[in-house]
Structures are given as structure tokens and as C-alpha cells.
Amino acid sequence: MSYVDEALEKVKAKNASEPEFLQAAEEVLESLRPVIEANEEKYRKEALLERLTEPDRQFKFRVPWVDDNGQVQVNTGYRIQFNNAIGPYKGGLRLHPSVNTGIIKFLGFEQIFKNSLTGLPIGGGKGGADFDPKGKSDREVMAFCQSFMTELCKYIGADVDVPAGDIGTGAREIGYMFGQYKKIKSCYEGVLTGKGLSYGGSLARTEATGYGLLYITEELMKCHGESMEGKTVVISGAGNVAIYATQKAQQMGAKVVTCSDSTGWIYDPNGIDVALLKEVKEVKRARLTEYAAARPGAEYHEGRGVWSVKCDIALPCATQNELHLEDAKLLVANGCKAVCEGANMPTTIDATKYLQENGVWFIGGKAANAGGVATSALEMSQNSERLSWTFEEVDSKLKQIMVNIYHNIDDAAKRYGQEGNYVMGANIAGFEKVAEAMIAQGVV
Ligand code: NDP
Q1: What is the pLDDT of residues 307-330, one digit of tens each?
Q2: pLDDT for res 277
């Protein structure tokens, strides 16, 4: 039996109750097959795959807090420290009722490879709680965050483990958690990222994921003899990633003609008006019908539909599993050349395969949306230096990181005879650095 199959069997036997983690481990290990086969004996002797799929440690803890009616509530908190071979653990804190051990483990595992791809010294971790900030008062959110940090602070630190935001954890939650950490530890250090600008946050973090997506897309186009100038782009979503992806695409001379939210989508043949979209979504927090009402020539449609619009480039930036096989068929039929994922896992597996088999250049989220975590790592650097860089400094470093990621994943795919398979290239490039560091550091 090959070493990959052997390791997968062990992972399945050990983690049968964690389907999300199993799916992620299977996907990554399968795509690493060519690298593992080329080093089969060495990696087997080192038990490298068994060590890679077993977290360094996991914490699960009670989070009691008092709601506005004086009632005590109890949530479950999690932090997984998966792998710190190349740097302190780094990964977001997800606050959502669906959070459980398997989901945190799957996200922490994926984070190892994404963080490695950035080329920055950050290991893989993830955390969160089954707490839903939606519908809670500010005081309730603060009570939860303080209780959560009272336990979490025992396990994290600027050189140990640096959590960040994720679903449900925005600037407000990070602020409350940072305040509590500082209070308990009597220590002002960059222990969290995604902080406000007045207390150690980084300029350009808000724009980073959307801008980074466009920097890698531009490099992809350039390496295929094309440019962004004059291209028609369809984008899904109308949140943080989608808004700043639209802005940067337009700065590059492309025309973005769509956006969407969970109820409907906009077709704007004259190009999305970013200032209006920001006003509707960031200021008024309203539906996209308001965009259509204020913008002559724009059409609003109920439901899904952005992928039916003819385009050169498609950038899914909303949510998981939002681009299905039938959407991929429409994109191919309409002559789409490139799909790059701004969201995490927006393209289903069969849609990804169809796009790749039909010659569409496809870059998955692990590489294409790494600009967010890369800029979080730049926030850590600024905190360590006790300096703040200008917007332009952070943005130019982000651009260089995304260009490097493109070339690393492209080279890795080519080295294993899989030219153009950027999904495999991303897993391989992310893995190689971590594997080398693990072996160099001995059996720990
Ligand atoms: P936001 O919450 O700011 O925006 C998400 C957008 O997607 C909203 O406009 C939302 O609509 C829309 N949406 C949600 N569900 C659907 C759906 N089923 N169909 C169409 N639209 C939908 O999130 P972000 O922009 O921050 O994140 C988007 C994705 O990018 C996520 O997968 C996230 O994990 C990933 N990501 C984000 C990073 C970041 O730095 N922000 C970093 C790396 C990855 P509505 O307003 O109606 O809810």
C-alpha cells in the first residue's frame, strides 16, 4: 500500500466523527501524492503525514456569561494549535452556532498550507465558539468575549499563537478580547490581529483580501500574455472581499458588471459604481434593490445568476459552494478564461474539475484569498517593531506576496508534471516548506 493510502486509513480510523476534517485531509493528501511518492521511504520513516494530521494540541473550554435578563448562558470555546513548524500558530476565531471540534480542526489544518504559501513565518491554528453574536446587545457580546478570553489567554501570546477575526468576529469582538487579554496579563503585545487602527491595527487590512485576489489574478493573466485592461469581470458577493475586489479590478482597467447578496444580484452593464455599493452595504447595510433604485441602467434580479453573465474573468467572493457544475458550464460556454476564488471553497468539486478540464485557469481560495492572512502577518511585524507602516508600504508588500504566491504554485505544479493545476500547486508549495521545517526540527 502506498504511504498516502496508509496514512489516509489511519486518519479515517482516528477521526471518524469529524467529517469536515476527513474531507480536508483527504483532499490535501490526495493532491500531495506526487511529492509523497517521490520521497516515500523518507516520509514514511519520519511518519510525516501522521504528524502533519495530528494537531500539536487542542483546547475546549466552558464560556459562561450573563445575558441582559440576568440569565447565565454557557457556550463552548475552542482553540486548535495545529502546526508551528514555520512560525507561531495563526488563524481566526469563528463565532457561529455551527462551530464544533471537527470544523475547527478542518479550518486549522487548511490554515497550515495557506499560511505557508504567504512566505511569511506563520504556523496553522484556528478557534472560536458556538456563540452567535447576531441579535446580541453590545454588552452581551462584551460579556461573552471577556469570558472567552479569560480562558484563551492562558494559551496564546505574540510569539506563541496569534488569533484573528473570522465569521462573527469583527473589529468590535477583537477590541473586547484584546482589552481583556491586556487586563489579565498586564501586557501590551500584538496577541491578536484585525485590531482597530488606534491600537495597533494595520492600514490596508480591510482592503487586503479583495486587493490580493486581484494582484494574483493580474499576474495569472500576465503570465498567459493577457492583461486586466478592458476585461469584463463578474463578481459574486457584496461584502468585504467583493467590494475591494471590485474596486481594485476597476483601478486595473477592467469592468466589473455584477455583484450579489443572499437575496439577489445586480447586472450593471456600465460597470459597478463602487462608491454607491459601499454606501448601500457598508453604511446603510441595506439590500441590493437600493443599489438598482439609485443607479440608472442597473438591473436587479431575485435569486442567483451572476455566473450566467458573459465574462472574461469570474471571481466568486460570497460564500462556500456558490458556484455549481451548471454555473461552470455556463462560464465555459460564454468564453470565461479565468476563475479565482476570493471566498473560501465557493466552487464545488465537480465544478472545479469541469473548469480545469475545459481549459479555464483556476486558482483556489487557499492561494487566491491569502492576502487577508498575509496582511495580518504584516500587522504582527508592525506590532513587534512598534511602528506603523503607511497604506502604500503595506499594499506594495501585499502585492509582492501575491505575485510570489502565483509563481510558487505555478512552479510547484510544473515540477510535478501538472502544469496549470494551481490547486495541486498550492497544496504542494504550502506543504514543502512545512515538511522541510518539520524534518529539520527533529521528532517533536
Ligand atoms: P461578508 O460577510 O462581508 O460578505 C459576504 C457577502 O456574501 C455578503 O454580501 C452576503 O450577502 C453574500 N452572501 C452570503 N451568502 C450568499 C449566498 N448564498 N449567495 C450570494 N451571496 C451571499 O464576508 P467577507 O466578504 O469577509 O467574506 C466572503 C468570503 O471570503 C467568505 O467565504 C470568507 O470566509 C472568505 N474570506 C474572507 C477574508 C476576509 O479577509 N474578509 C479572508 C479570506 C477569506 P448578505 O449581505 O445578504 O449576507
Answers
A1: 999 999 999 999 888 999 999 999
A2: 98
State pTM to two decimals. 0.94
Mutate to test the pocket of ligand 1, among 262, 327, 394, 402 (most ligand atoms within 8 A of CB): 262
3-state SS, the chain, equals: CCHHHHHHHHHHHHCCCCHHHHHHHHHHHHHCHHHHHHCHHHHHHHCHHHHHCCCCEEEEEEEEEECCCCCEEEEEEEEEEEECCCCCEEEEEEECCCCCHHHHHHHHHHHHHHHHHCCCCCEEEEEEECCCCCCCCHHHHHHHHHHHHHHHCCCCECCCEEEECECCECHHHHHHHHHHHHHHHCCCCCCCCCCCHHHCCCCCHHHHHHHHHHHHHHHHHHHCCCCCCCCEEEEECCCHHHHHHHHHHHHCCCEECEEECCCEEEECCCCCCHHHHHHHHHHCCCCCHHHHHHCCCCEEEECCCHHHCCCCEEEECCCCCCECHHHHHHHHHCCCCEEECCCCCCECHHHHHHHHHCCCEEECHHHHCCHHHHHHHHHHHHHHHCCCCCHHHHHHHHHHHHHHHHHHHHHHHHHCCCCCCHHHHHHHHHHHHHHHHHHHCCCC
Q: 203 CA distance to ligand 1 centroid (A)?
A: 21
The active-site residue out of 90, 105, 114, 126 is 126
Atom of ligand 1 nearest to the CA of 281: 46
Please confirm, yes or no, whether 14 is among the known catalytic residues: no
